[in-house]
């Protein structure tokens, strides 16, 4: 069976040279373990942090080791009472075609609830991130203007739609005209800005938000956030979810400067980690799946075919190749 290992640590933008595809013996499950065949593998921006040799909220991977990923897979062999062959499961496994996992660390996926791939997307970690980050920190009220960056991504597209369901006016940024069209034509965003072609980002944000910004869900950081900052209203809320614009920087600027804005506006800025929401995970998934079933929440997946293309799928996140959740299709049931 094949797995992707970390070949070297990237400096700046990651490249193919940082990954090595190796063939290893198929592992065998021990007592309490199951052998899982990967059907879908997730690639996520936070993985960039794990390629780095620095402590962060996610532990760094070692060079020469297989990399970890959220996976949706099929149980092939089980040495645990809780699972049997044919069960569909999700969990944090490996960038691998097969992996062994402790049964306690896997969750069952109910194929009747929807496509199984959603267990690592809208009905998985990104969906829960959007749900609680928005509810707990942005706390949108009817009539508020909510701004979301990387709005056409896995997290951002859910944030924008949930904010609309709360009665807010929703504006976002995305990196292509096709994404802007999806947001405004299909998802019903009130406005969306292509930050890659917009010469005057500050002006565009101001124009798209004539009543200012009451809540900002930040996936990106950098200049987009600087432009949003200028439009924050009194008592606005900023949820700092991700800073992907900075993940490949070799020298990140040392600190926020324009904090006078926070004095003037009495705005609240709060970072959060979805892993702190373990005990409210199921509540978010239930609500999200209701919204999908009612037709109130749309989602898209960008599926890269073939395990050998997993690094391309990952690198594509930094080029904005994905609309919605970026996935790798690894195997068939
Ligand atoms: P996305 O599906 O949003 O994919 C990443 C997107 O980011 C790309 O599609 C691209 O879209 C955009 N992007 C890439 N590079 C840049 C750049 N330099 N400047 C601006 N935009 C860029 O990923 P996720 O939805 O999985 O994650 C979104 C964010 O949320 C990430 O920052 C991630 O780290 C964070 N996150 C945080 C969690 C937490 O617990 N705090 C949990 C999950 C995710 P475009 O075409 O618009 O450029």
TrEMBL record:
Question: Which residue ranges does the record assign to the Enoyl reductase (ER) domain?
Answer: 14-328
Hey, what's the signal peptide range on this chain?
none
Superkingdom of this entry's organism? Archaea
Entry keyword set: Oxidoreductase
A Pfam short name: ADH_zinc_N
Q: List the molecular function annotations (GO) for this entry.
A: oxidoreductase activity, acting on the CH-CH group of donors, NAD or NADP as acceptor
Q: Which PANTHER family match?
A: PROSTAGLANDIN REDUCTASE (PTHR43205), PROSTAGLANDIN REDUCTASE 1 (PTHR43205:SF7)
Q: Identify this protein by name.
A: NADP-dependent oxidoreductase
